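Z., the sequence and structure:
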Amino acid sequence: MTVTDGARMAPVTPELLAERAEVRRDTLFGVEDLRVSYAGVPALEGVSLDIYRNGVTAFIGPSGCGKSTFIRCFNRMNDLIPSALVEGRISYHGVDLYGPDVDPVEVRKRIGMVFQKPNPFPKSIFDNIAFGPRVLRIDGAVDERVEQALRRAALWDEVKDRLKESALSLSGGQQQRLCIARCLAVEPDVILMDEPASALDPISTTAIEDLMHELKESYTIVIVTHNMQQAARVADMTAFFSVKVSDDGKRRTGILVEYDETPTIFTKPADQRTEDYVTGRFG
């Protein structure tokens, strides 16, 4: 297999896939029979899997299979949609994320989110990073926290002399790393990324992928990507989602087909539907 998707020309070698297989089996999230519906219409159903600490887990599959719906369950972003209903269980450190005593704001502090399109605030670079710690009243020197977050996002050297400039003056790739730094500034445990590189050029995409490899030493990363080669490059575990169509053809519901170590998903999948998708026979 060779990567030729425009992000970078590099072989997905057996050695690289073997490296992705070295997953630390320390469960952080446990998902049990998850079902998500909007206005009573199921968008995703029957999902059960574990996500492990300090690894990169990728969700892949065709459009409309519920990948983005699923990732937004982990920090309760679907709560913001009035018609959404989440059923089943997602445990985090053994605690039910949807339990009656769980504060969604605290969940989103611990489980940060980076979206498909960079969304810096119309503020200075410094104020973008300082915003979260100030709002959450996190103890510690703000200057040090801003610098540390920018260093972790591999952006400090590029912006250290421009901290008072508007974040909107940065390139697209820099803006996305700024959004990652903004997430890191509140000291999360988990970083969710929904198609974080789909709007970026190849060089910026490579920078984001390299950053994920570095960040997983300290954080757990969950990523949605339409790019299978990207999943092969960065993920330790990969979940393949597909769509179940009702008999009348009017209803499409996302389902989890297969979840395994990334090398297995891409070289020896257990389900024919997975093999058809990763080899390009459908999707």
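Residues 122 and 168 are 7 Å apart (CA to CA). The chain has one domain: 2-278.

Let me know what you think.
H.
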